[in-house]
Model the fold of this input.
Amino acid sequence: MAGPAWLDRLERRHSAPRFYAGVGVLAALDGAMLSGLVGRWLVLPGLAVALGLLWLVAVHTGQRMVLTLMFLLSTAALFVFGLFLFQDRALQQRGAWIDAVVVSREQTRVNSACELRGNDGVVVAGPAGGCRAARPGDRVRVFHDPEGEVPPSWSAPHVAKWVWAAAGANVAFTACVLRAAVLGVRGNQHAGAQRPRSLGGRPVPPPPEDPPAHR
Done:
């Protein structure tokens, strides 16, 4: 499927391997930005670049909804893994295990939340997803950030796990973009092969047929 004229010219201006390499590097770097691997403050710029890459996928997929869906799912996975990565990084740097008492618990159809009181008497929000089966007055043990920047966790931080998960999602993300680039280049090559050759702006006439031989 052909894209805009400026994009088609860009693809024709560079050799296919060079174009693929540039698109692949851009996609891989954007995936690292989305997941927070290269900095927390680059997530929003990464989302903006992802919108541009989504446009590239959309104009070159040739109605391949599976490829577009895989791109969207890998983008969402990168963003979610980035949230967990940021939380575990913060807990690993300054968090510690604490014993706390469940102060309150709220359960709705779509959400569960609770509040905890630590040994110092400070009330903090409970872990994401609520306090499980614990009830007010029960004692629980959580991994807590004293600065309160991230919610407590039921388990110790495991940064490497989220790094590997983000790397896997980034491979799928980059593969989707590269596949779209390949489809775009092939579409341009096919369109170029279909154009009639011209001479002086006019179609080249067919060669004259040889006159029949006289016996």
